[in-house]
Amino acid sequence: MSKPHILILGCNFAGLTTARYIHALVKEKASITIIDRKSLLTFVPNIPLQVLADINPAIDLQYQFMNFLEHDGSAFIQADVVSIDPETNTVFYKPSERAGHPIRHINYDYLVIALGNRLAYDTIDGFSEYGHSVTDTFLGNRLRNYLHRDYKGGPIAITSDIFHQGKSDKLPGGLPVALTACEGPPVELSFSIAHWLEKNQKGDASTIFLSTPAHVIAEDAGETILKQLLPMMEDMQYNYQANTLGIKKVHNGGIEFNDGSTQEAEISIIFPDWQAHSFLKELPFTDDQGFVVTDLYMRNPDYKNIFAVGDAASITVPKIGSLGHMEAEVLSQTLAADLGAFTGEVKPIAFEILCMGDMGGIKGFYMRTNEWWGGKESHLEMGITPYLLKMSFKQMYYTLGGKIPHWGLALSELLGDAAIV
Ligand SMILES: Cc1cc2nc3c(=O)[nH]c(=O)nc-3n(C[C@H](O)[C@H](O)[C@H](O)COP(=O)(O)OP(=O)(O)OC[C@H]3O[C@@H](n4cnc5c(N)ncnc54)[C@H](O)[C@@H]3O)c2cc1C
């Protein structure tokens, strides 16, 4: 009898970790194939650090994962996923290494969707000419060049566009709704760029204009953390604006917002709307925006052999990697239990934000909170330890090929919660 075939779409943070966790549990009981259009993982969270250090982020942040998959005995196909037919358990794909391939197909017994999102810069008027960002190595390198070669000083605007969170009556009840996809990076950049400005004698925190379309920035950090963070940023003389309602236009001298206000800027750093890939929008297992519907075990309630993890999953809000990481653990146990390869108790995802950001000058911040989901955990620490945690996470990820051991995050929490330096 042939083994069940597990097909994983997407091989960045969520896909690679899930593939490796599933393999660790099911071993020889299933065959695993992973498809991604790239054969290198982009280590997105560290792009801002490279930008400020004047290093092309593509040099160190595009990571070769293939040998780890080979070691597990998992197959990898470099291809664009074109469509999915959930009625016949078929995925259609087009090899992406060179142009001109016909569309091929592959069948699955279990499907894991880890395709992330499309970042909708193309819906922002003026972005291609006047906007900057740090969400991939292309944009990171573009900002690096501008900052280090052309920027002479002047206001730097950092802002997000409105996020359209998906709705579906198939989703678990009580999920909070966000107006932005991911506001950890804008906060992190505000700190680290202010440090860079001072170091390069081009400005300080007062040079930075941080804004949000929501009623408060980083709402998902919870009230306790925001009560510490916002007054601290005010004391440091950051300029801050809420309720912009999103971006109308980016132009040569700044940004026009949907609430009618404007922001003068020499550099406009934008975080766009995180949207679902268009081919997912028509499928019967996605919400009204095209994000994949799952329960708290990362399984679709209608198509029981379809799972999602990371940014592609509807319940992953905010769109941060640490949620995807926790989901990968839950998903791999759920799927392995189906195959009789996991006999322990599978616990549903317990939502929590774990975020480590760079503040420049070998300092960082650490946040761990579940307040936004009604929990009582709330930790905000700043100093050298959070910075070292952020840097050692990358090292651990690269060394272990994305297979962070369970104690890895627990240790981060232990050190982060009690950071005294
Ligand atoms: C600047 C910045 C800093 C961040 N910092 C942090 C942080 O400190 N901590 C944290 O937890 N999170 C952080 N995040 C968020 C984190 O980077 C994302 O949540 C994470 O990358 C999502 O992982 P993913 O695998 O779900 O999706 P992605 O990383 O988007 O990966 C999706 C994969 O699918 C592939 N793919 C997409 N479409 C197709 C297709 N049609 N065919 C084939 N392949 C396809 C892509 O090539 C890609 O490899 C940060 C984000 C940004 C932008």
- CATH topology call of the largest domain: FAD/NAD(P)-binding domain
The structural class is alpha/beta
Low-confidence segments, ≥5 residues, pLDDT <50? none
CATH superfamily of the largest domain: FAD/NAD(P)-binding domain
Rounded average pLDDT: 95
Integer count of domains: 3
Dominant shape: globular
Structural Rg: 21 Å
Helix content: 25-40%
β-strand percent reads 15-25%
Continuous helix count: 12
Structure, described:
The mean pLDDT is 95. α1 (13-26) packs parallel to α10. The chain contains 12 helices and 22 strands. The protein is α/β, with parallel strands linked by helices. The protein has 3 domains: 5-117 and 276-338, FAD/NAD(P)-binding domain; 118-274, FAD/NAD(P)-binding domain (3-Layer(bba) Sandwich); 352-421, no CATH class. The radius of gyration is 21 Å and the shape is globular. The chain has helices spanning 13-26, 47-52, 57-60, 66-72, 127-130, 137-150, 184-199, 223-235, 278-281, 321-338, 384-400, 406-417, and strands spanning 5-9, 31-36, 40-42, 62-64, 75-85, 90-95, 104-107, 110-113, 118-119, 131-132, 156-160, 208-211, 239-241, 247-251, 254-257, 262-264, 267-271, 274-275, 306-308, 353-360, 363-369, 378-383. Bound molecules: flavin-adenine dinucleotide.
